[in-house]
């Protein structure tokens, strides 16, 4: 691993085509970050983590597409595994709405929640389009992947990338990762795997993701919004305030009309008053 | 329509529940009451002054609940002041992000609190209490002051809807009408609140007719925004989420709350007859004087619950 220098953009390239679903990333993450984890949930598949949350900053998704009967080889698509993580978006929804400025962009170009600044308002939870952030019930602050901010400061790569036995998780300078990803997807296409695609490698979603992916199916299969749906919370500011302003004008006009000075009420004709 | 063209939400709900529901309710009533009080004083006759003062009292009474609920809802309540002061080491200072409604709202609520408190003190003075404050307050509290406070009151009543929309949550972020919807419902609810409070201040009952007419005008405004809200959800395919069972019941309660106003508008239009100014409140039927306004207030609460809970 080359030296990690502040001021340079770093990230993850998660290549799901070589993920074997071992969850070493989850374990390494919990060990390093001292996350106690949740009680495991045993469901229908191999996923007993469930989702990214305050306790799980890496989550291996298992996409079970195994057909009921064996009709063909599956071509490596029957089981899709993907080690999900905070995307460290260039245009980050969480950072945009955070009212305390607890969420910052670090000197490594990663998105970091300062635990001593966050007050647990959960606006970032409502904003994150990837279901990454959760408020921890013990600490009372929002938590997510830090891209091992502390390890980077010490010149070490993130724990998950170091633990990954297949190099599905690669850590490095963003420009180098992007070049490697483009080579990799080109190789896969050449090998007859047309479904391989990159997500977040260019600026199509949230201005580019520092943690981007090579996927083996469309993004929405992995619960990732597609380019059209990757939108920022602030898009609704103008429309929301405009509608409120229009309503306020109408309400004030209504009040002015209702409260206007009236002439003394004319005496009602005898028996002519409605009930 | 293929999957890729649909509106997609892969988000976690922020768990803004009961504390926030109560906050939305009282923020709407506080801001709305302040606005109505100002309009009554500005536009009404001298006989409407007691009702205007009642409005400023109501605005102040509804206010303290708001910050308490907001603080209790935080994961770290004692850090509530981080909303206004950035404590990042080496980068500390006041923090205001106009593009984040929660940040703007924290300051807006604080500013409105100042105006509502000063207007409350001013109202006390006008009512003959704490008269030693007169010299301090008199130069402050003219029409310009209450007009500025009313702008903040309208903001406090409406920004909460914008806050929900400025997210990536289903329903909330699929519509741009929530700020207007909350604002319209807040004005209707505030008119109903003042209507109920008339019982406590006999001198204010002269304004009963005017408040009744106001309810008749705010009701169609709220109805229109409910319709707009529903229409904006259609392209996102979110109508079922927001209006399906059991939330239908809450929407029906919200509609029931504006039914008296709509009914009054249809039958009497803007005329103040029958139980308006010409009939003393003591003779008015209990239904019109109490039950209907309370139903309107229940509708204000139901409407906010029907927006908050379906996606959480």
Could you give the topology of this structure?
The complex is a heterodimer of chains A (275) and B (312).
Chain A: E1 10-15, H1 24-33, E2 58-64, E3 79-85, H2 93-97, E4 103-105, E5 111-113, H3 123-127, E6 134-135, E7 142-143, H4 149-153, H5 159-163, E8 169-173, H6 174-190, E9 197-199, E10 211-215, H7 235-258
Parallel strand pairs in A: 1-10
Antiparallel strand pairs in A: 1-8, 2-3, 4-5, 6-7, 9-10
Chain B: H1 18-43, H2 49-62, H3 65-73, E1 85-86, E2 93-94, H4 101-126, H5 134-137, H6 143-165, H7 178-197, H8 208-233, H9 239-243, H10 247-268, H11 286-308
Antiparallel strand pairs in B: 1-2
Helix pairs in contact in B: 1-2, 1-3, 1-6, 1-7, 1-11, 2-4, 4-6, 6-7, 7-8, 7-11, 8-10, 10-11
Short description:
Chain A is of the alpha+beta class and 275 residues long.
Number of helices of chain A: 7
User: Which secondary-structure class do the elements of chain A indicate?
Assistant: alpha+beta
Strand line-up across the major sheet of chain B: 1-2
The appropriate CATH architecture of chain B is Up-down Bundle
End-to-end Cα distance of chain B: 27 Å
